[in-house]
Amino acid sequence: MIVEIKLFVNMDTQGNTYLVIDEDKNCCMIDPGSLKMKKIISYMKENDLNLTGILLTHGHYDHIIGIPDIIDYKKVPVYIGEKDIEFLYDSTLSLSLWYDLDFKLSKNVEVIGVNEGDKVCGLEVIATPGHSQGGVCYLNREEKFLFSGDTIFKMTYGRTDFPTGSLSALRESISKILKLDGDIVVYPGHGGETEIKEERVYHVFS
């Protein structure tokens, strides 16, 4: 059972990183998107949390650049949509080159590709391409929450003008998400949380 979802806002990228914590103090991390992950590492230490994995919603720099800091703290697998794996090693695809970062993940880090229907850290993978070709969301149907990355935000949605983006694919992905139970809480990659039923009002893709 999940007992807490802890949000950390990355001030350098204005993105959200989440810890999903269960009753046994195991946790997984969603989208470590800051060059400085000391605050979240300190939180895990202070609360005696056991990190079991890093889950990525997609491969853009503001969701992945904190991986090295976290791996230095504890070596855990990194999960990402199969079609976005190459983003971790290509600074043009990840957009990090646009910000003079030239981020490329070490080949020593264990990376596991995920696809529709896979289960990771108790979360179900939903394939949601559009913002990127391998974008995914992570869903807990029983406890009613979804990590949507940059597929859907409160009252808006992700851009499709980046490499491998596709508006038509995003339309299909949003339509899929909006068919989920209305009381599911959505935790996006940027901005505040929302609910599926609220987003049905704003999105013309449903």
From TrEMBL:
Q: What region holds the Metallo-beta-lactamase domain?
A: 14-190
Q: Tell me the SUPFAM superfamilies matching this sequence.
A: Metallo-hydrolase/oxidoreductase
SMART domains per record: Lactamase_B (SM00849)
Gene3D superfamilies, per database record: Ribonuclease Z/Hydroxyacylglutathione hydrolase-like
| Keyword Metal-binding carried by entry | yes
Q: Which Pfam families match?
A: Lactamase_B (PF00753)
Spell out the molecular function terms from Gene Ontology: hydrolase activity; metal ion binding
Keyword Hydrolase tagged? yes
Keyword entries, A-Z: Hydrolase, Metal-binding, Zinc
Cofactor(s) it depends on: Zn(2+)
Q: What is this protein called?
A: Beta-lactamase domain protein
The organism of origin for this protein: Sebaldella termitidis (strain ATCC 33386 / NCTC 11300)
> Upper taxonomic classification of the species?
Bacteria, Fusobacteriati, Fusobacteriota, Fusobacteriia, Fusobacteriales
